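thought: user wants a sequence for this fold. calling inverse folding tool.
action: design(structure=
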């Protein structure tokens, strides 16, 4: 009788430990998934902040450079692309496009010394530079979260539960042509 109770106790302990293992693994995967979503929202918030700054910057430049219509059209198109993008890949492509037109806008601004001295313009440029730094930090944190999540759902024991929880591999937030497309300085030709 005692032997049967010991065996039943051992089996019960194994079942409880196994149940705790399953719950712990599932909760860990869900927590990692939420961490990725949280980090994505940080990127999305900063991209939206930059997108919201653009009209003010454009209006300030327009006051000084009214005849530079082409760049204003390109900025409007890039802003529309950013607002329409939904996935990390789409946002990354739109971010590269936005960065390119912003660089061209700043090149236009260089031709107007009064504009560069304007306090509104300088303030907007400072905000834009701060936002660019925040985007870079948020992108790094997001990509680290994606790496942890993707490892967890591909490794044992997470791989046992990922399918049942409908957890799919997440996309990294990288520019389409790699980091060089974003970090490369614009080329000046005469």
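)
observation: tool returned 190 residues.
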């Amino acid at each position: 009788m005692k032997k049967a109770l010991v065996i039943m106790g051992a089996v019960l302990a194994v079942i409880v430990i196994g149940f705790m293992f399953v719950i712990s693994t599932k909760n860990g995967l869900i927590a990692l998934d939420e961490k990725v979503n949280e980090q994505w929202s940080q990127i999305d918030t900063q991209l939206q902040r930059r997108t919201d700054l653009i009209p003010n910057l454009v209006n300030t430049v327009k006051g000084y450079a009214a005849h530079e219509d082409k760049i204003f059209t390109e900025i409007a198109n890039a802003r529309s692309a950013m607002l329409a993008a939904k996935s990390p890949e789409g946002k990354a492509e739109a971010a590269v496009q936005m960065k390119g037109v912003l660089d061209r806008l700043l090149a236009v601004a260089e031709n107007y010394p009064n504009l560069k001295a304007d306090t509104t313009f300088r303030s907007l440029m400072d905000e834009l530079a701060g936002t660019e730094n925040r985007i870079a930090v948020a992108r790094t944190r997001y990509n680290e979260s994606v790496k942890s999540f993707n490892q967890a759902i591909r490794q044992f024991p997470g791989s046992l539960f990922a399918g049942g929880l409908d957890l799919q591999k997440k996309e990294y937030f990288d520019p389409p042509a790699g980091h060089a497309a974003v970090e490369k300085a614009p080329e000046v030709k005469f």
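thought: summarizing for user.
answer: Here is the designed sequence. Confidence is low (pLDDT under 50) at residues 178-183, 185-190.
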